[in-house]
Amino acid sequence: MGDYKNHSKETGRGLCNSFDDVKAAKRAHKGDIQDRLRVDRKMRKFAHYATRYKEHLNAVKIDTRRGSQLQNQIEFILSKCGNRYVWQDFAFIQDIVGLILKARRSLANTYPIRFFMSGPAKKRFFDFMQGELEISLERLSKMIVKDITDHIEMGEDKTIFMRESFSKFKHSAGEIKHTVEDHFKRILAQIKADFPDISEDPSIDDSSDEEVKPGTNKNMTWSCYICTNTNNPED
C-alpha cells in the first residue's frame, strides 16, 4: 500500500481506515472493488432478513402479553355473566393466540432459511409463500388487538351478555384462522420436502436477491399493535 506518510497527501484524509480511501488513491484493483460490492450486497441482504427475524420474535412477546390480557377479560366475563356462558364459549380466542404464537415463531425462523437458500425459482416461490403467511398472520393478529369487552352489554338483572357483534367477530376470526393454518401447513410441508416441484434454470443468475433492502416491497404494509392502523412502509 506504500508509505503511510503519503496516505494523507494522496487522499486528503488518510488511508487504510476506509476502502473509499483506497479507491481515491487509485490503488484498488477491479477484483477488490467487485469483492467489496459483493460483500456490501451480502450485508444488506443479511440486515434485511435479520431485521425481519427480530421483528417477529418481538411480536411474539407482544402477542403473548395480549393473550394474557384476553385471558383476564374472559375470566371477568365469566364471573359476571350469571352462568350464561362457559369457558368453551371463549376457547376459540386462546386457540387463535396459540396459533399466532406458533406461526410467528416459525415465520421468524424462515428468514434464516431464506438467507441461505439457493436457486432463484425456489427463492421466488418461497418469498410468495412467506408473504402469504405473513399477511394472513398480521390480519389474524389484528383481530385480537381489540378488547372482547367491547362486545358486552349489561342486562336488567345486572349480569352481562355478549352482543351479536361477538358472534360476527368469532366467525370472522375463524375464517382468518383457517387461512393462517393453511398457509402455515403449506410452507412447513414445502420446507420439509425441500420444494420437490420446483425446477431451476441454470442459466439464471442466483445473486439478484442480494440487493434486497428492508421495505423494498412498496405494496407491503404493516399493522400497528397499539392503534391497529394499517401503515405504509415509510410511516
The CATH architecture designation is Up-down Bundle
* DSSP, total strands: 4
Widest sheet: strand order?
1-2
- What are the low-pLDDT stretches, counting only 5+ consecutive residues below 50? 212-231
Number of domains: 1
CATH topology: Four Helix Bundle (Hemerythrin (Met), subunit A)
Separation, N- and C-terminal Cα atoms: 46 Å
Share of residues in strands: under 5%
Q: What share of the residues lie within helices?
A: 55-70%
Radius of gyration (CA) equals: 26 Å
Shape descriptor reads elongated
Features:
two-stranded antiparallel sheet; 235 residues; Four Helix Bundle (Hemerythrin (Met), subunit A); mainly alpha; 4 strands
Summary of the model, kept short:
The chain has 235 residues and is mainly α.
Q: How would you characterize this protein structure?
A:
Helix content is 60%, strand content 4%. With 235 residues, the protein is mainly alpha-helical. It has one domain (34-199): Four Helix Bundle (Hemerythrin (Met), subunit A), CATH 1.20.120. The strands form 2 sheets. It has a two-stranded antiparallel sheet. It has a two-stranded antiparallel sheet with strand order 3-4. α3 (30-80) packs antiparallel against α4 (91-116), α4 (91-116) runs antiparallel to α5 and α4 (91-116) packs parallel to α6. The radius of gyration is 26 Å and the shape is elongated. The model is unreliable at 212-231 (pLDDT under 50).
